[in-house]
Amino acid sequence: MTITGIVSSPITYLNLRSHTTASSFSLPPINSLKFSSPTLQSNTITFTTTSLRNPNSRLSVSAISLSSQETGSQTSFLDRRESGVLHFVKYHGLGNDFIMVNNLDSMEPKVTPEQAVKLCDRNFGIGADGVIFAMPGWSGADYTMRIFNSDGSEPEMCGNGVRCFAKFISDLNCLNGRQSFTVHTGAGLIIPEMQHDGKVKVDMGEPVLKASDVPTKIPPNKDQSVVKTKIEVDGVNWNVTCVSMGNPHCVTFGREGDQNLVVDELNLAEIGPKFEHHKLFPARTNTEFVQVFSRSHLKMRVWERGAGATLACGTGACAVVVAAILEGRSERNCTVDLPGGPLEIEWREDDNHVYMTGPAEVVFYGSVQL
Ligand SMILES: N[C@@H](CCC[C@H](N)C(=O)O)C(=O)O
């Protein structure tokens, strides 16, 4: 038997993910919650609970997941329909975490941007860097992916998110023996491929270098790109290269005169927002700070547009390798270390596409009252 649920104080819904005939249950002590006696209806147990930690919050605390030997379809509970209740699966790609929503029956996201902000809150919600919707295909693609950042804004693409998306589609048993499928995104057609080692390799398409398309107002070079160009941020000159992977990235290997950036020494929370909201980036920007270990090994920290400091950014790692190659710092195949772990990135010469390989994992299943 498996029980999973999300606390939405003062009521908690716990959904049984497998069929059971049991009529009574005992829960282990959960310190922050006070539970009433459970009632069993069909295959759903309902508890009333008060959050001792935060009795007045509208949406609060954490997920509960209890497991034993019995197995059932892991995602069957997503098919349940209850008004006002959202069933979700939380995934992460190197610690960049997402609330995945099965939206395959509609092109209308089941969560509004305002609700996404609440769900992503790490204290009063589920906690995530974004909410991702798996939707029906569009213009010939098998599926459509949309995403809201944790601030409610909608980006064009998400690299770690699309690996989690691929795992989600596979976990929903939608692959029918295929390893690869197409996803329509704001960045065009993206093609994830499930590997035998459990990782996901993604064809992320071609990088966009034309300044006005990134977009950035930094005066471009003759070929319209912004490569190793000096900009002033908060009184300091930084050398930057701008790359769009569908979403905008500003990549820096250091300040003017820096030999090699030591990224762990940066105060990201201070400098990150100054880049994100700089007047030279009309659509705001993601910013990657990069340290070069060798021509095939880089380390980056990221400040994401609409999400702040995250443990990983897939489109960011792709932009970093493109920038490193354009600046003559690396080869076309690189390992990029992020706070949450490494990604393998290749900018392939023959098709000009960027390929990203990395993990995607389930964290937990849950339901929440919207
Ligand atoms: N973490 C993502 C990028 C998510 C979108 C980004 N915050 C934006 O607004 O562009 C990734 O892995 O690529």
Automatic annotation (TrEMBL):
SUPFAM superfamilies: Diaminopimelate epimerase-like. The keyword Transmembrane does not apply. It catalyses: (2S,6S)-2,6-diaminopimelate = meso-2,6-diaminopimelate. One of its GO terms (biological process) is lysine biosynthetic process via diaminopimelate. Keywords: Amino-acid biosynthesis, Isomerase, Lysine biosynthesis. Gene3D superfamilies: Diaminopimelate Epimerase, Chain A, domain 1. It is found in: Plastid, Chloroplast. One of its GO terms (cellular component) is cytosol. It comes from the Eukaryota. Transmembrane segments: none annotated. Coiled coil: none annotated. One of its GO terms (molecular function) is diaminopimelate epimerase activity. Its EC number is 5.1.1.7. Its main location: plastid. Pathway: Amino-acid biosynthesis; L-lysine biosynthesis via DAP pathway; DL-2,6-diaminopimelate from LL-2,6-diaminopimelate: step 1/1. InterPro entries: DAP_epimerase_AS, DAP_epimerase_DapF. PANTHER family: DIAMINOPIMELATE EPIMERASE, DIAMINOPIMELATE EPIMERASE, CHLOROPLASTIC. Belongs to the diaminopimelate epimerase family. This is diaminopimelate epimerase. It comes from Mikania micrantha (bitter vine). The lineage of its organism: Eukaryota, Viridiplantae, Streptophyta, Embryophyta, Tracheophyta.
